[in-house]
Every structure is written in C-alpha cells, then in structure tokens.
Fido domain-containing protein
Amino acid sequence: MTDPLAPLLSLPGVADAANAAKDAVFQVHRHRVNLRGWATTAAEASVRAARASAALEGGPTDIPESGEVSDPVLAGSLRIAEALGGLVATWQRAPLQALARLHVLAAADLTSDVGRPRVSEDVSQRLDMLGSLVTGGTSVPAPIVVAVVHGELLGLAPFDVANGVVARAAARMTSISTGLDPKGLGVPEVACLRRSAEYEAASVAFASGTLEGLAQWILFVCSSLEAGAREAKSIADAASAS
C-alpha cells in the first residue's frame, strides 16, 4: 500500500529538518538529569506546554498561587496536561476516541456540546484518514507525522471550540506515541507562542494544500520541535542546579 505521506519527504528541506528535530529531541533525553529524574522535568514541560497552548487560544498563562484556575481555556489545557499520558495508548489504538476525550477535557467549561465533531462528511472523512495515519498508515519520520496531525486538526477545526488546544495536545501525543519524545520532555508549544504570527501563517499555508504551504508548515513544526528541545534542556539544567 502506498504511503500517503511519503511525497512530503521530497519537499525542499523537509527531510533534513525532520532529522535535525529528531536529533535535538534525542539529545534532551540523554541529558544527565533526564536519565533518571525525567518524571520531574516532564511534569514541568507538561505545565509549560499547557500554559503556552492556552495562551495561543486566548487564555492567560498565569496559574494563581492558590492553584484554583478560573479561566476556562487555561483550566481545560491543564486538564489535558494531567490526562495526556493516560490517553497515549488510546491514541495509538482508537485515535478518534482519544480526540473526543481531549475535547471533553479542553471544552468542559466552554460548551455543553463536548466530544462530538461537527456533523460533516468532509470532517468525518478527514478524521478517519488522520486516524489511519496515526495507527500505522505511514512510515515517514515522526516529526512529519506530528506536523500533519497538528496542521490537519488546526485547519479542519472539527469541533465548535477549543480546536487549537486539542490540535496541540494531539501533536504532543503523537510525539510521545511515535517515540520521537517518549517521555514528553519537549515544549514546542512555547516556540509556537513566541512565534505566534509565524505559527498562524504557517498553519494557513498548510491548509492551502499547496506544496509550498505544506513545506512551510512542516519546516515550522520541525523548528519548533528543536526550540522545544532547547526549552527542555533549560528545564533539565535548572533541575540539575537545584
């Protein structure tokens, strides 16, 4: 069977960018702190990712000292952060079920219509295609799969609200499930926030479906994975100094 994502490897710069992203994330996993104390650094990465993702969706980044988060967007993003590890196995086996659960977590305080994608033949078909990729329908390097999952969910916007938070969480699960970042140490969401205008432009380019647009998005995602690895290194460095 033909790999539907294989042509993406021939786009200018994509193969090299994917390899660079893989190498950067691998090196973070070899950091002295992450060889044994990765649970602590992964927890910090997860919270930073949640805060950045919420900010990209229009929510705040600050968590009150009391720990009681009232903002619905940030609360949903933090709920996802807490539950994400337990959803990876479902993502690998039944990705549409995992997506529904992500939306329940993200949108519980935003709408009563949670967990159900929009009723549309196009939405249904594209989610089915995405599900087939996640469950073994492609053998391209993991950063490319992460980029496609992320970009497709952003562009498709299958739910009425919280699509960005869901898309970034699905991309994070894909990084973990493909073995690119099995411990969830990277924080590419922070890079997306810091380069939010470029992030939005690249996602629009991906949605256009042109070869140039696809390459622009994949290169952006790969660079954000590299930046996320640098963020992870800073977390590990801080942990080793404490």
User: Anything to note?
Assistant: The chain has a mean pLDDT of 96. Residues 211-241 form the longest helix (31 residues).
